[in-house]
Amino acid sequence: MAMRIVWHECQKAFKSPILIGLLLLFTAFNVFVIVDNSYFKEELKIANQLVEKYGRKITDESLLQFEKDLQDDLTALKEITGQEYQSVYDFLETLTFEDQNRYSEQEWRFIEQLQLKEMYFSMANDIDASYAKIDIQKVAEGTIAQSRLSGNAEKTLLREYEKFSQRFEEMKQNGEHKEWFFAGKAYFMHSFLFKTVFLHIVIESLMLIILSTALITNYEFENRTQLVTYGTTRGRRLMKDKLGASVAMAALLTTFILVATLSTYFIVYDYSNVWGTSINSAFNWEYNFPNIAWWNLSIGQFLSGTIAIVFITMLLYSGLTFTLTTFVKNSYIAAILMATFFVLALLIPGFMPTSSNLLFITSYSLSLLVLNTASSFMGSSGLIMFKNFEWMTTVCWTMITFVLCIFSLKWFHKKDIQ
Amino acid sequence: MILVKDISKQYGDFTALENINLEFTNGLYGLLAPNGAGKTTLIKMLATLIAPSKGEILYNGKNIVAMDEDYRSLLGYLPQQFGFYKNYTPKQYLLYLAALKGIGKKEALDKIDDLLEKVALREVTNKKMKKFSGGMIQRVGIAQSLLNDPKILILDEPTAGLDPKERARFRHLLTELARERLVIVSTHIVSDVETIANEIIMIKNRQLLYKDSVERICATLDGHVYETTIPYEQLETYRRQFVLLSEKQERGSMVIRFIHKGEAEANWLPLAPQLEDVFLYEYRDDIGEEV
Predict the structure, then answer these.
(1) Is the CB of A224 less than 8 angstroms away from the CB of B96?
(2) Which terminal Cβ of chain B has fewer Cβ within 10 Å, N or C?
(3) Do B130 and B246 fall within a single domain?
(4) Which residue range is the domain that position B15 belongs to?
């Protein structure tokens, strides 16, 4: 019977034109953002081809083979151009505007491919040198200076960076960074997927979940049916069903947005051969510091982990909205208060003393967790670089949400219904 | 059997009900009082929607709050303002409420057909309720209160929005229902319960005033209700001196019905008191020192 009631409660959200309209609008917007950025999608195929031809791991042997193949390609370039070049870039430098019409479309495709291959080859050759320059101690000092940390906060961060330094060495020894992936500095695919696309997913899911939870929880009071519904056999236990329905709707809405958005993403961008590549790949290095996770995670595992974080966080937000809506009887005010809570959680660490560990403790918030998906599980993520950040935040907030939900249910159980 | 034991309800400094003691067995009870007298507060306590500040309500010796679902499974309740989902059809809404009452879907579907027939809404079973009149909505409300075939039926102002024909039909339905269950009808319209209630409960100044049969309540005014014809000019004097129950114009004069507890005048015609007379007398506004 309880399942039937939960289903009835879910139907209330399904029948909300605002909710359905927003869901479709958000999905369409995400598809647009992904497709609009796809002008380079053909170039990404090179990374897949490299994995197919030389294996996922970059070894001395595979690089040697790659170099030989590049020489063959340069010979082929000579046949096309009639001139010998040490690199396709030499050819491109001497190229004039008029020369462009001298070559067929197929020849140009070959030249472009060769250019990309040379780029990947050059990057692969530079990996050791680039990583040798990295000094984690200096990175720690830089972060501490930038954030003006002192006292306990400084000590805590230094301790964590010490652990991270060991992990960095271990990562290098494992050769996790020597695996083929899309060139980060050229395409920024990690940031695009885990920052831009996931940011859309998170914000949109959050809006829909807050609205649907508030709608389900407050439905009786807003339709003035509370005396009828809470006077039935089920009585105030209906609130439990409403919590179940809110969480089920949160799961459904998040799943819909995740599936629609990520399916589009992976249809547009070919990841077929790089799923197994480590997230710590040197090719995934986009900005000043490479992405280095605390664990050796493949792209597929990192994506699964990120999806899990987003999914769990959304369910927790549904629980928190439920608690708030039990006390605030207006759905729109509840939605505004939840949005304020979300933003406040981001701002609070900024008000903490930079000498205290409170700075880090207040950073363990759902807002920071879910807005930093690109840096999840990473040791290279500034003040939230802690190894336990993800699981600790999730577990703590699960407990907080659980306690708050129980408290609000108990409170409602004793409340007079007017 | 329901036993209301010394209950009071307070909202901050405001006392809505004070030391109410009542006993209900099978049959129809009319809870009669003007708006704001505390009827709805009492009814909501009987429906476990609000908790008494003091005292308790027992069903067969058990506290109804402690009985929780077991008590409410016996209860059919129509609140004063029956809320509904505008975009639902009566069938969808009743199916939802049936689920809340723990009734299986198949059983509910049969029951809903029967009840909608009973309240003459069969033809609009699948029409959205946003297009319904007040009377139609109220009939959906009555149907929902009967979904679980309740042993205790509590109806708060059930005739609001019903036209005279629907009221008559509803009274018949109530009489039929009260044969085998406890029915409590709260109303401020005397005619709703006067002819059908086994007992009338009246609340005044937050306390119980009467709980008795219509005859015995009317007997409290035996020999005090009169009718007389007066010139229009004297009407104001009578209004000041007596509790006027009704006034009507007849051939240029006024025929008035009133209460007087002293010596009667010669031209006053004594009448048998009606429940409406008691109601008007007990809940009269300040009308002077007479009576």
Answers:
(1) no
(2) N
(3) no
(4) 2-213
From A1, A227, A414, residue closest to B79, measured CB to CB: A227
Task: Answer whether B29 touches A (CB < 8 Å).
Answer: no
Residue B221 near residue B192 (C-beta atoms within 8 A): no
- Asked if residue B70 lies in contact with residue A234, where contact means CB atoms within 8 angstroms, the answer is no
Q: Is residue B287 part of a domain?
A: no
Q: How many CB atoms sit inside 10 A of residue A276's CB?
A: 13
What CATH code is carried by the domain that includes residue B158? 3.40.50.300
pLDDT band at B291 (very low <50, low <70, confident <90, very high): very low
- Residue B73 forms contact with A (CB below 8 Å): yes
State the total domains in chain B: 2
Residue A40 DSSP symbol? G
Residues B81 and B204 in one domain: yes
Summarised one tens digit per residue, pLDDT across range B86-102 is: 999 999 999 999 999 99
| Shared domain check, B28 and B86 | yes
**Domain ranges, ordered by start, for chain A:** 2-40+135-414, 58-133
The full length of chain B comes to 291
**Cβ B102–A15 below 8 Å, yes or no?**
no
Residues B58 and B86 reside in one and the same domain: yes
The answer on B166 and B105 residing in a single domain is: yes
What CA–CA distance (Å, rounded) separates B186 from B288?
30
Q: Does B283 touch chain A (CB under 8 A)?
A: no
The ranges of chain A with pLDDT < 70 are: none
Same domain, B27 and B99: yes
Give yes or no: residues B85 and B126 share one domain.
yes
For residue A109, give Cα distances in angstroms to A43, A82, A100, A106. 11, 17, 12, 5
User: How far apart (Å, rounded) are the C-alpha atoms in residues A134 and A125?
Assistant: 16
- Does one domain contain both B277 and B176? no
Question: Which residues of chain A lie closer than 8 angstroms to B44, CB-CB?
Answer: 227, 416-418
More confident residue, A400 or B262: A400
Mean pLDDT (chain B) is 91
Confirm if A35 and A269 have CB atoms less than 8 A apart. no
pTM summary value: 0.90
First to last CA, chain A: 26
Residue A57 and residue A169: Cα distance in Å, rounded? 18
